[in-house]
């Protein structure tokens, strides 16, 4: 069957393409911006990519068109599909119908940490010999691919609360029907879709409604929004993580790279790994709970975590030039920026830390999170903000109150000049964006040479 995917370079749709190819389908796709890591992964898989949405790509007509949630009415390819009456479906619906049917689905939902936690969980199951399938919105370095079918009942999916398609405004995750569900955390996000936090809580409650009474819901004790979701009704056993929860961590190093794990007060073992930050310790506890639910004993799961390598674009070290270390990170919400910088600060001690941040997400463009930005960077020594001409609000005025020295730039060249002026050997530079950032990482490394 010929499947054509509109919006194929999104992390979810790119992963879907990999699964469709593995099922034996002829897969093609297009996107407005074809960029790594998805474009390189897709080309390596032999999937033909078209730049842009000219309707000619749909002639001859494919058997089905999978339409990504970034596409809306007025897009020429979408209009062609509707006018010609071509069969079309959303990505989450296609996944549910063709991959997840009859599987033990382990879903990881939450505002932050979905990609990292689902990567951890897939790796822990792999380490335990359970050969899971997975679909992850990023490329886990333990697997070097973002999705695979797997040949056992177990399937790990990153369960996003974003909408499914222009014709299906439900959150993607209501299609997945998990048996094991991790609810990591819940804050206001996706201001282009949701009017307020209660609207997102309602979607999370729809997810909880789909989990069987023989399943498991895992959530931290410290998230009031998730507590409200559970109180709307839950028909499934619950395990809690973190402070006062059933799964707890006792830090042995301040940066979170070593910690003991306790379940119901009983010591289960010690995790020693390359990850940092309190957020990753929380991700690990949720992973251990989910793995135990499918039969992985905690000490084996802990052993797996110790061999976990992070996800591409999650505090990924991309270059080291003259003693200056450059990282690529996906953080784009004030909470994620703060926790990521905190984890790195605890690892590098007093070394100079420069953050370069692009407010690129739809919520950021709408200014939804701007009040949280000035304080989110307190662990950095210097921050360079990128304010493109089309941002739509005054970034410089927003970050003027930041306690950290800041510079707002309107071009990549200006950013590079500012970093060069500030940086010295021994410094760490973190580039934070949920997009390609115009290849800034490579350009900065070249400029520092």
UniProtKB/TrEMBL annotation:
UniProt organism field: Pseudomonas psychrophila
PANTHER family found in the cross-reference section: UDP-N-ACETYLMURAMATE--L-ALANINE LIGASE-RELATED, UDP-N-ACETYLMURAMATE--L-ALANYL-GAMMA-D-GLUTAMYL-MESO-2,6-DIAMINOHEPTANDIOATE LIGASE
Enzyme class: ligase
Residues binding ATP: 110-116
Pathways per UniProt: Cell wall biogenesis; peptidoglycan recycling
Domain (Mur ligase C-terminal) ranges: 313-435
Keyword annotations from UniProtKB, A to Z: ATP-binding, Cell cycle, Cell division, Cell shape, Cell wall biogenesis/degradation, Ligase, Magnesium, Nucleotide-binding, Peptidoglycan synthesis
Protein function: Reutilizes the intact tripeptide L-alanyl-gamma-D-glutamyl-meso-diaminopimelate by linking it to UDP-N-acetylmuramate.
GO MF terms, alphabetically ordered: ligase activity
Pfam families, per database record: Mur_ligase, Mur_ligase_C, Mur_ligase_M
Cofactor(s) of this protein: Mg(2+)
EC number(s) on file: 6.3.2.45
UniProt xrefs under HAMAP family: Mpl
Domain Mur ligase central residue range list: 108-291
Domain of life: Bacteria
Ranges of residues in domain Mur ligase N-terminal catalytic: 2-99
Entry similarity comment: Belongs to the MurCDEF family. Mpl subfamily.
Annotated catalysed reactions: UDP-N-acetyl-alpha-D-muramate + L-alanyl-gamma-D-glutamyl-meso-2,6-diaminopimelate + ATP = UDP-N-acetyl-alpha-D-muramoyl-L-alanyl-gamma-D-glutamyl-meso-2,6-diaminopimelate + ADP + phosphate + H(+)
Protein name: UDP-N-acetylmuramate--L-alanyl-gamma-D-glutamyl-meso-2,6-diaminoheptandioate ligase
């Amino acid at each position: 069957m010929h499947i054509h995917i509109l919006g194929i370079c999104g992390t979810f749709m790119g992963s879907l393409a990999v699964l469709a190819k593995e099922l034996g389908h002829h897969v093609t796709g297009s996107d407005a911006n074809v960029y790594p890591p998805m474009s390189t992964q897709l080309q390596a898989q032999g999937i033909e990519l078209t730049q842009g949405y000219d309707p000619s790509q749909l002639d001859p007509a494919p058997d089905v068109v999978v339409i990504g949630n970034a596409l809306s009415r007025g897009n020429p390819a979408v209009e062609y599909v509707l006018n010609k009456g071509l069969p079309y479906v959303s990505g989450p619906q296609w996944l549910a119908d063709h991959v997840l049917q009859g599987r033990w689905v382990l879903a990881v939902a939450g505002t932050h940490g979905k990609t990292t936690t689902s990567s951890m969980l897939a790796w822990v199951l792999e380490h335990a010999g359970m050969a899971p399938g997975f679909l992850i919105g990023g490329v886990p370095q333990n697997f070097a691919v973002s999705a695979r079918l797997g040949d056992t009942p177990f399937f790990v999916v990153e369960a996003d609360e974003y909408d499914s398609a222009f014709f299906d405004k439900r959150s993607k995750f209501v299609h997945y029907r998990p048996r094991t569900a991790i609810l990591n955390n819940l804050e206001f996000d996706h201001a282009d879709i949701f009017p307020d936090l209660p609207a997102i809580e309602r979607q999370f409650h729809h997810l909880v409604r789909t989990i069987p009474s023989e399943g498991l819901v895992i959530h931290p004790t410290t998230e009031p929004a998730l507590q409200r979701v559970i109180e709307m009704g839950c028909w499934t056993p619950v395990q809690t993580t973190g402070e006062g929860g059933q799964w707890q961590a006792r830090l042995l190093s301040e940066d979170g790279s070593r910690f003991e794990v306790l379940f119901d007060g009983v010591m289960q073992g010690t995790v020693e790994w390359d990850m940092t930050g309190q957020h990753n310790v929380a991700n690990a506890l949720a992973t251990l709970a989910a793995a135990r639910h499918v039969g992985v004993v905690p000490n084996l799961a802990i052993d797996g975590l110790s061999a976990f390598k992070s996800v591409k674009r999650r505090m990924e070290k991309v270059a080291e030039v003259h003693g200056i270390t450059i990282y690529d990170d996906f953080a784009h919400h004030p909470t994620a920026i703060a926790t990521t910088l905190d984890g790195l600060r605890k690892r590098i001690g007093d070394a100079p830390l420069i953050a370069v941040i692009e407010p690129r997400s739809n919520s950021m463009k709408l200014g939804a999170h701007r009040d949280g930005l000035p304080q989110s960077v307190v662990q950095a020594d210097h921050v360079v903000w990128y304010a493109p001409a089309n941002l739509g609000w005054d970034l410089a005025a927003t970050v003027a109150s930041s306690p950290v020295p800041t510079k707002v730039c309107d071009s990549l060249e200006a950013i590079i000049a500012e970093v060069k002026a500030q940086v010295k050997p021994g410094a760490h530079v973190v580039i934070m964006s949920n997009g390609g950032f115009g290849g800034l990482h490579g350009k900065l490394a070249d400029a520092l040479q």
